[in-house]
Amino acid sequence: MSYGEHVREELREPSRELRRALPRVYEGYKQLHEAALAPGALDVRTKELIALAIAVSKECDGCIAAHAHGAARQGASQEEVAEAIGVAILLNGGPATVYGPRAFAAFREFHAKANR
Fold first, then answer.
1. How far apart are CA 58 and CA 6, in angstroms?
2. Are 5 and 114 in contact (CB under 8 A)?
3. Measured between alpha carbons, how far is 94 from 12 in angstroms, rounded to an integer?
4. Would you give the distance in Å from CA 44 to the centre of its chain?
5. Burial of 39 by CB count in 10 Å (0-12 exposed, 13-18 middle, 19+ buried)?
């Protein structure tokens, strides 16, 4: 199991348990997520790239896995992902040089699966 799938699997059951304990909070977050990522002036691919770069800056493995998967599903290229991560490195410095490669590896994993 690669990085992205490992993180998703590790979080799957604890997330389900917390979602059961806080259904209204998770429903509200789901609505926010759908509204923020809906197509508008920016397309969904671009929004996933932004979210991935922010996930790198926030050092959030679960967010990285989710938005690397989302970017792959939306047809982002490796070049687009690399450039988005480059912006995260610019604004976040050293920590992004640790989380950036994680994000790139997760994206490449999901991208490979999407293009089989």
1. 19
2. no
3. 29
4. 13
5. exposed
Q: In which residue are the tokens 């690669």 written?
A: 2
Cα 11 off chain centre by: 14
What span, in angstroms and rounded, lies between the C-alpha atoms of 72 and 112?
9
What confidence tier does 55 reach under pLDDT thresholds 50, 70, 90? very high
User: Does position 1 have pLDDT exceeding 90, yes or no?
Assistant: no
Residue 66 CB: number of other CB atoms within 10 A? 21
Q: Token pair 């789901």 is at which residue?
A: 30
| Average pLDDT score over residue span 80-97 | 96
Give the C-alpha separation, 20 to 23, whole Å: 6
Q: Hey, what domains does the chain have and what are their CATH numbers?
A: 3-114 (1.20.1290.10)
39-to-6, 7, 108 alpha-carbon distances in Å: 29, 27, 24
pTM of this structure: 0.91
Q: What three-state secondary structure class fits 40?
A: coil
Nearest to 67 by CA among 104, 96, 35: 104
